[in-house]
């Protein structure tokens, strides 16, 4: 009886207990070192092989790879590893690539630049471990960053981005120079869509649909592949099957699979991969236990063995004020204590932490991950890197570089402490709404808005609007540029939303934007639906016969298509409402359709959970590895 009562109360367990247990599960892989094998799926392998085919084709190698980065901090856990491993592949195979973005948030391209820098460092460390010469990649020759041209909707500009890329972006982001062949040697091989070997999209949405529906209608040979979040990937699988996409990366799992294909000598998981796997196993166990407890207690309640529990009016009881104050004091003491330990160690040893440089003779993974370095060691390293010239000049240049490197490491470490504080502040919301979370949220939102405003002014408004108007006002030969002032009219209409009397004027500009978006959407739907319909016209019987020998063979592809057709028909029959199913057969078909849809919804929910864990696990990696790891693990 006590077991039944315990199972009954499991259905009302406080979600904060589940959060704490999940946090423990996600932390274990960062504290206990172990690895698991990785088995790439078909879609990841197809993506990898598409890039390999370009690298092995002398003609395609002379073209460029277009990389569209459309993700931000919210999907960094999935899109970040995807973009980084793609950069590593392109860098290792010496494929020329162009990085660009049309995301409305300027921080997106900044995150892509960070991932590019990390990919270069990863490849250089790999070469160092294997005893190879340290590779170098020259900006403007091996790769180039076009920056971002923000657009709230991708469909209206999809064709322009792919087919008139250089005209659309006009100048690069790093050196702020016009995109001419003279300024950047890489552009001598990139003048139009025919010079694109493959279009790689890394996004938290499905921009590949727009490219397939709008651009591939005019350029059928354009290769397109997308890396996206797990919650979006379900919708893109049919486009790989129909040949519209030549590859698909599904969430952070696919990034790990791609990494195992790129580095077959080390096809194992990382602590972050293990954390996501352990988190999924924990949630799966909770789902099984919860449903088992529900089924057992429901039978007992119907039999009168248990009294049904009253459902709580609130799913999570708020913590008392005293509890919140106690938790905050414990957090403040712990955080300030970590700060004091870090500051004391750095002052006493006159050093700063950094990732340890692995010697060529060492085994991969042996020794500590971090080390403390002082100014003397940094100066010695810079002296070894500098060759040629008088000894005094080399010593002076080494000292300048060492001081700059030390300042960079200090700045990075200070940023890690700020990042840890904000991460913990956001995670505090899991215990309930509180002031600490709201303050941290306000600071982050304010900082993001300030950064976005400055970036958009420097990279969009000033060069594309203010500069032409100034040129038109100061030069008699460019008076036509003053027509850009006419944009002030519709631009000001947006702000009429704050007026009750003139709010209708805002609807005019909104209607214009909606019309501009719907127009390309029609063409997009035709371009993506027709190939999908044609792809469904396939044999459904899973046994195929050889036309010459007549031998029968089992076809997995036909079986998949048979399942697709059956599920599609059952789902459509369920939504036929103009007659009532009275026979046993009709009721069975209706139930089968509902069951098929529930299985589909379950798959979508599973990918949603996968997405959430891929966001959460990197935060624990940041706290336990980047922040505390440099303090206690070096």
Task: Using brief descriptors, characterize the structure shown.
634 residues; alpha/beta; Rossmann fold; six-stranded parallel β-sheet; two-stranded antiparallel sheet
- Structural class of the helices, strands and pairings? alpha/beta
Uncertain regions spanning at least 5 consecutive residues: none
Give the number of helices.
21
Query: What's the overall geometry?
Result: globular
CATH fold name of the domain at 38-268, please?
Rossmann fold
Trace the largest sheet across and list its strands. 3-2-1-4-5-6
Structure overview:
The structure is a single chain. The chain has 634 residues and is α/β, with parallel strands linked by helices. Among the domains are: 38-268, Rossmann fold (3-Layer(aba) Sandwich); 321-432, no CATH class; 475-535. The chain has 21 helices and ten strands. A hairpin with a 6-residue loop joins strand 9 and strand 10 (552-554). Helix 1 crosses helix 13 and helix 2 crosses helix 21. The chain is globular, with a radius of gyration of 29 Å. It starts with a helix and ends with a helix. The relative contact order is 0.11.
Short summary:
This protein has 634 residues and is α/β, with parallel strands linked by helices.
Fold blueprint:
Elements: H1 2-9, H2 15-31, H3 42-56, H4 58-61, E1 64-70, H5 76-92, E2 97-101, H6 107-129, E3 143-148, H7 158-163, H8 165-169, E4 196-203, H9 207-215, E5 224-228, H10 230-233, H11 237-241, E6 248-250, H12 251-262, H13 271-302, H14 321-349, E7 351-355, E8 370-374, H15 375-385, H16 391-427, H17 435-474, H18 488-493, H19 503-535, E9 543-545, E10 552-554, H20 556-574, H21 584-632
Parallel strand pairs: 1-2, 1-4, 2-3, 4-5, 5-6
Antiparallel strand pairs: 7-8, 9-10
